[in-house]
């Protein structure tokens, strides 16, 4: 994980209990480390799973249990798009590819109205995060 994920950012709107968004990447990294240790115990040697694959598996397993990763770092977002985020957290509404994966708004930075991407949303709903400024560009709307 990169250090920029640890920067102080506004918190996302909380999810309805018992679901929750991890406060920081330390909890997630601990889960990934435990999963990597388990793969070493059951499959010792150089045939262990790639770290990225283990991260994806942990993300999916935690999401099914109602525990979701923190929002992505600003540096990892598409700089040509609004920085607002939405977390598809309802397994009945979203397919396995989108469920538990933060979605970035696909509109231009500074746009008016609701956010659009693979899903549409308004600021203030559970599992959403308003646009954040990046560098010298306005990420607000």
Order of helices and strands: EHHEEEE
Residues in β-strands, percent:
5-15%
Shape: elongated
Q: Tell me the distance between the termini.
A: 29 Å
Total DSSP helices = 2
Total domain count: 2
Secondary-structure content class: alpha+beta
The major beta sheet can be summarized as: 3 strands, antiparallel
Helix content: 10-25%
Assembly type of the shown chains? single chain
Strand ordering within the main sheet: 4-3-5
Structure description:
This protein is an alpha+beta fold. It has 2 domains: 53 residues, no CATH class; 70 residues, no CATH class. 23% of the residues lie in helices and 7% in strands.
Helix and strand arrangement:
Elements: E1 20-21, H1 25-42, H2 51-64, E2 67-68, E3 85-86, E4 103-104, E5 128-129
Parallel strand pairs: 1-2
Antiparallel strand pairs: 3-4, 3-5
């Amino acid at each position: 994980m990169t250090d920029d994920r640890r920067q102080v950012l506004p918190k996302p709107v909380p999810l309805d209990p018992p679901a929750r968004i991890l406060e920081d990447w330390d909890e997630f990294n601990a889960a990934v480390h435990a999963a990597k240790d388990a793969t070493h115990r059951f499959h010792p040697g150089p045939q262990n799973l790639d770290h990225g694959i283990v991260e994806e598996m942990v993300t999916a397993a935690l999401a099914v249990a109602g525990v979701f990763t923190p929002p992505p770092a600003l540096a990892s977002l598409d700089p040509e798009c609004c920085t607002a985020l939405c977390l598809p957290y309802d397994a009945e509404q979203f397919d396995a590819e989108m469920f538990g994966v933060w979605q970035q708004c696909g509109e231009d930075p500074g746009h008016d109205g609701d956010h659009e991407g693979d899903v549409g949303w308004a600021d203030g709903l559970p599992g959403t995060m308003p646009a954040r400024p990046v560098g010298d560009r306005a990420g607000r709307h």
